[in-house]
Amino acid sequence: REFSTPPMGVFSPLEKCIPLQGNFYAAICLALETIYVDAGDLSCDAGGLLLQLRKHSTLYLLHLLHSILQPLARLSKALQASGGNMSSAMALAKATTAGIDAYDFSNLLSEFNKAGKVIVEAGVYLEDDFVMKESEKVGKKFIHQVTKNLEARFSDHVSEICILQSILKDKPLSPDLKAVANIFHIPVAELNSKWKFLRPLNVDLSSQDEMIALATSSDRIAMFPSFALAIRHLLLLPIGTATVERSFSTLNRILCSKRCRLNTEHIRQLMLIKIEGPQVPDILEAQPCHNEEM
Which of 207, 199, 197 is nearest to 231 (CA)? Predict the structure, then answer.
């Protein structure tokens, strides 16, 4: 039951499923053998899955996935709990990327050999298709792609933009705004001159509400146009993917097979109501209206 219904989260389902599959590998294989023999229509599916699970290479890749998805799951949870703290999020992402990039394949081989012995002792036949060089090549290619994606998402430019949030929070007298100026092609002198008027404001400039006000308020944009531009980009940085995933889930619930003729504008309006509000009361929870009240 736990294997088929993993918990919610960005990386949590795979991160939870893979160790479960490893812990119950022999039991899963034996159950698939029974299904293959006795289940009739399900025999073909069970047989195909069983062929894959009975390979040493599959066991090796599952252990690799488990090792890589653990730090990614921790990073995902930390990013979603960061409360918009960009500097902290960037530090976590870079540490995770460095840890994955320095992955120890010798330790993986040791764990793989131990798991293989346990599974064979439980009575499961494993096909010896394992080729060390080929499997390690596939593993390194996968890790390279993961680190490449992380580096693209949390690049140096993104890190330099995040410095702006620390400046807004600490309010130093003479901040180093050269990185921000280079990214947005704004003269450093202009940023420094505007900072002299922005810094004395008696508010937490790094809070979400104040940054949104700086980025969207017409008065603030007129007074601090260069900072408004930089903060708009800062607010748009994708720290977590949970909000995006919920939006796609909302779209799938609205545009279902029974409502496939909705046009684009109507779908957009329904999604805005569902995501942003106002809250539409549930008709099933409405109080019955008596005739006397009518």
Answer: 207
The identity of residue 133, as a single letter, is: K
Residue with tokens 């100026």: 181
User: Using CA atoms, how far apart are residues 35 and 38, in angstroms rounded to an integer?
Assistant: 5
For residues 251 and 264, the answer to whether their CB atoms sit within 8 Å is: no
Work out whether the CA dihedral 78, 82, 88, 89 comes out positive or negative. Answer: positive
Q: Which residue has the tokens 């252990």?
A: 63
pLDDT digits (tens, 9 = 90+) for 128-162: 877 778 888 888 888 888 888 887 777 666 667 77
| Rounded alpha-carbon distances, angstroms, from residue 226 to 185, 196, 277 | 10, 13, 32
pLDDT, tens digit, 9 for 90 and up, residues 164-206: 888 888 899 889 888 888 888 889 999 999 999 999 988 888 8
- Long-range contacts at 74-77 (CB < 8 A, ≥ 24 apart): 76/9, 76/10, 76/11, 76/12, 76/240, 76/241, 77/9, 77/12
| Ordered alpha helix ranges (H), the chain | 12-23, 25-38, 43-53, 56-80, 86-101, 105-121, 132-153, 156-170, 178-184, 188-198, 208-216, 218-223, 225-235, 242-254, 264-276
Structure tokens at 47: 């047989």
C-alpha to C-alpha distance for 66 and 59, rounded to whole angstroms: 11
Contact 116, 56 (CB under 8 A): yes
Burial of 206 (0-12, 13-18, 19+ CB in 10 A): buried
Q: Are 162 and 84 in contact (CB under 8 A)?
A: no
**Tens-digit pLDDT profile for residues 46-66:** 788 888 888 888 888 888 888
DSSP bridge partners of 55: 127
The span from the CA of 95 to the CA of 82, in Å, is: 15
Distance (Å) of CA 154 to CA 74, 91, 149, 181, 234: 16, 9, 9, 19, 13
